[in-house]
Backbone:
């Protein structure tokens, strides 16, 4: 059964459903991630992943959700997963903080889907006891501005923390207090 | 790296002989005792829950697997036949893989005699050899001793998550520091 969180119409008129991730999303996620890597999107990964690797990650993901460690949201449009957002709690004395990650398929970008996923993620993370969300972003990425608009504040910068297309890029760290 | 490989030996400032080597399976009970003693004394580390022998077995199995596959740098300090400190560096993934993340702890009763610094120096040396360019670490803002040592060793602060840590019922900032390694 699919647990639906919310449905909305994107800025360009696409019907989007935000829902819980399922085991059966595996192949959509595999295709999506590899498409992003191919496109050289500003994420950490730079090598295409195999289905084997994605099976391992997906099972970790499902386990983390069941144990209350992670929140994961899938954006579904036109019958496919077109975006994913996740927040994963850290352990021990840091467990009131969680790292955030979000990506959207190329043809579905700039329609507000990422922002909707982040807002949904924030409200669910809050219910899970998360007080602070943090993220890392390429200093040259347009997402920096998006995160700022959503209330994320820069707390650090690692000069040359990223190697992208043969160049060093600074890594910006941002956080947002969502509760507490 | 083969578990148990000896890297170096030195005399600590209190005169005790220290062996720096990679962790090995026989460290299991020392490691369990070590982590639980850190939790007990409420050391300024992430972990705040005691481990069982069973969870420690899983943890050490994973650690040695990563060591054998060269996915991690691991240096432990052995004094009088017991494991009393540990330092680990793990490379970040993908486009961040030139940056390693460092974690270190030394057992109560073995601190302030230079063991931590030697552990870090050895881990940094191996990290540079492996091609890592910088080392990143996280420290409690209120851990004056550690902050001082890291600064002395060439780490500089690049940011902090306000209230990123909950320690003894209080919020503490989580400070990030980085050091650029000299290329080998």
Residues:
């Amino acid at each position: 059964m699919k647990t639906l969180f919310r449905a909305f119409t994107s800025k360009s008129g696409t019907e989007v459903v935000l829902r819980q991730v399922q085991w059966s999303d595996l192949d959509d996620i595999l295709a999506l991630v590899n498409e992003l890597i191919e496109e050289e999107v500003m994420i950490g990964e730079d090598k295409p992943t195999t289905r084997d690797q994605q099976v391992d990650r997906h099972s970790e993901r499902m386990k983390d959700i069941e144990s209350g460690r992670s929140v994961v949201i899938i954006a579904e449009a036109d019958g496919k997963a077109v975006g994913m957002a996740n927040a994963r709690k850290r352990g021990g004395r840091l467990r009131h903080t969680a790292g955030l990650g979000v990506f959207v398929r190329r043809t579905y970008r700039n329609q507000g889907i990422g922002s909707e996923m982040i807002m949904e993620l924030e409200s669910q993370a809050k219910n899970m006891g998360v007080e602070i969300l943090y993220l890392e972003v390429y200093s040259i990425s347009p997402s920096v501005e998006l995160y700022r608009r959503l209330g994320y504040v820069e707390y650090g910068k690692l000069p040359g923390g990223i190697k992208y297309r043969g160049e060093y890029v600074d890594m910006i760290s941002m956080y947002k207090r969502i509760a507490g | 790296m083969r578990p148990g490989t000896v890297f170096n030996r030195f005399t600590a400032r209190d005169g005790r002989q220290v062996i720096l080597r990679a962790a090995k399976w026989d460290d299991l009970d020392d490691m369990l005792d070590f982590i639980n003693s850190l939790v007990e004394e409420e050391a300024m580390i992430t972990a705040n829950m005691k481990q069982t022998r069973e969870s420690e077995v899983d943890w050490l199995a994973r650690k040695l697997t990563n060591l054998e596959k060269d996915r991690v740098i691991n240096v432990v300090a052995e004094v009088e036949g017991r494991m009393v400190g540990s330092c680990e560096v793990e490379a970040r993934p993908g486009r961040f893989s030139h940056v390693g993340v460092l974690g270190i702890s030394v057992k109560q009763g073995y601190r302030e005699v230079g063991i931590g610094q030697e552990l870090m120096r050895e881990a940094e040396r191996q990290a540079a050899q492996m091609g890592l360019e910088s080392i990143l670490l996280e420290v409690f803002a209120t851990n004056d001793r550690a902050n001082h040592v890291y600064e002395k060793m060439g780490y500089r602060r690049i940011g902090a998550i306000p209230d990123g840590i909950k320690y003894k019922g209080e919020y503490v900032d989580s400070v990030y520091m980085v050091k650029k390694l000299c290329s080998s």
User: Anything to note?
Assistant: Chain B has a mean pLDDT of 96.
